[in-house]
Amino acid sequence: MSIKKFKWILFWVVLLGAIYFLWPTFFWYQMSPKDRLKAQQTREKIVGKILNLGLDLQGGIHLVLEIDETKLGKDMNVSDALNRAIEIIRNRVDQFGVSEPFIAKQGEKWIVVQLPGIKDPQTAIDLIGKTALLEFRLVENTGAIEKVATKARELGVQLKDIYDENHQIKKEFAEFIPKDYEVLPGKEEGYFLVTATAQVTGAYLTDAKMKIGGQYNMPYVGIDFNRDGAKLFASVTEANIERRLAIVLDSVVQSAPVIRTRIPDGHAIIEGNFTAEEASGLAIVLRAGALPAPVRIIENRTVGPSLGRDSVKAGFVACLVGLLLVVSYMIFYYRFSGLIADAALLLNMLILLGLMSLFHATLTMPGIAGIILTIGMAVDANVLILERVREELRNGKTVRVAIDLGYEKAFSAILDANVTTLIAAAFLFQFGTGPVKGFAVTLTLGIIVSMYTAIVVTHQIYDSWLAGRQIEQLSI
Amino acid sequence: MIQLFKKTNFDFVGKRKSFFAVSSILILISIFSIFFHKGLNFGIDFTGGTLVQLKFNQLISLGDIRSALLKNGINCELQDFPQQHSVIIRIKKGTDEGIAKKIQQILSTEIQNNPFELERTEYVGPTIGKHLINQAFFALFWSFVGIIVYVAFRFKSGIWGVAGVVALIHDVFITIGLFSVINKEISITVIAALLTLAGYSINDTIVIFDRMRENIRLYRKETLYQLINRSVNETLSRTIITSLTVFLVLLSLFFLGGEVIHDFSLALLFGIVIGSYSTIFVAAPIVYEWEIKKTGSRKL
Questions:
Q1: Across the interface, do B265 and A435 touch by the CB < 8 Å criterion?
Q2: Deepest in the core among A331, B12, B73, B153, taking most CB within 10 A?
Q3: Residue A140 contacts residue A105 (beta carbons within 8 Å)
Q4: Residue A432: per-residue pLDDT
Q5: Element (DSSP H or E) covering residue A391
């Protein structure tokens, strides 16, 4: 097979491949929003084949969480805790129902969570950030808390002030607090004196569900313990009948019901004046498990859907107008040769988008900027070549020779210029967070693709055009 | 054949002192503005802080928003986009994660006749900001190193690599200087624009270096002075045409791309102009200046 034939086969493979990979994306954005949602929920195949819109274009949240090392268990290092936390957050997010979430470690103690297309950001943030450490602790029943309260009243301070900055009990209160007990705030009001260690924890949970009912027909969470948990729970309740058992979530007492009987079957309920949303959120985090340590939100970027829609529209218009300007300019300046350069440019766009669909890449606003910039820079290779061809024609070479010399001589400049740009793009990628990374990716792909379309494809078009023909004049 | 330039024969090297003077003035203005006057207006990406962008139903006056927030003890910077009825509220430093919610609550109670929709909120903690500054410098620094090494390797001369990077630092620095002069905010996307500019600027310079490399082989009898002039003149039309096409698409991005991408395109628009200038008037003359210093001869 001749090289020429091979080049044309490659050309058609690339062109058809680009269309093939781009097709699902094209089809997808023709669908109605309702159909798209349905397809996402049923996880249809097409969902994995499209060019995604980034958070900034379809709305969503980007969070960076920092794990609080000081509150880690003794037998756990940061890296293990981070992996465990990621697993649990992924679990929670899956149950919350988000398509295409991104959850990953960043650096030593950070976790990045990206949830595109989310309707209610605040609920999602609460869900992710909650430690959800569930504990059952017995309430002290000899009236020590009243003594503390009396003392506090004498000193004219509030109960929350009995701890100093280091979370140690202040001296003047310490005498009232029995050994192995501590004071925790209640969800609604008041303070509770509870055992410092938990009798039973959420680690024994097998299930948690939101239910509605009970005395006041309020939402509550019903939980089930596994066999060990049920045994433990039965013995604790048996030994402490008529005492109050505090249900503690992340160091806040949700409720503290009185134990009436031994509970043998491992069922328990958590009441706490919840709304239905709160209760179902709590059920989700309990099912998914507790984070190994509390996390703090250190970065939160939320984009509403309307801004995203506007950005997509603006980006699309800017892209079209930019393309139109460059295409007309090239035809105006280089005539027929400009037309060939334009064909290469359009092919470049097609391949670029096809590749991005193939990689299931995410298109961000800076990514669109990268594409637009690619339009401007991709013609540079052809400008270099065409200027060279003109020089050779001025020097009296024939069309055929001038074209071949033009390509030959322009090549080193195109290569070196593009490689240096690639070096800058690579560091951009390395540095990039989120959207900037999207920009680096489109720019890089754009440069690489343009090398093929502008050098190889245009040359073979000239070759085929000149083959067996005696051309005296080149429109350039 | 339409030609921007007929065969030109400008004496770029001969006038290099004037161009060095122009560049020096631009750099001095930048230094003055950055270090002694307005400084750099780093965005919350770097300082840490909160940004809330709201889209109101009707046109809203910034004064109303400011007084509503001030009444509740929130001091902020405001920026509006009257066409979209959008307002950006920025609070730098010393904010916590909950303040975005608080702002929305305050505004929905204080400004009841003009409801709004949340377009975006951003909260960046101080540790993240520091991390990002480090990363940005790291990325800029190592991309410079990478470029010097590559150019030095391809053109078999460290001087050329350094000259190319000097020209690109020139472009990036003056662009940063402009942002200081017009007091525009430097955000992550602007840094991305600066890195892109670095890539574009060196790209432009390389084309001339490539021609010099070729002409040195072709015209062995010419002096470096003549060779550089010849090379810059021969590539002049390409430099202008490519700058024009990139400029055209950036104009489209600037005017039509929406406010998210506005500062990004502004940085690049300006950068491309200054980049083309430095490619033609600065990069190659630096090589010349360096060579005559090195050999101590005036005859090059």
A1: no
A2: B12
A3: no
A4: 63
A5: helix A365-394
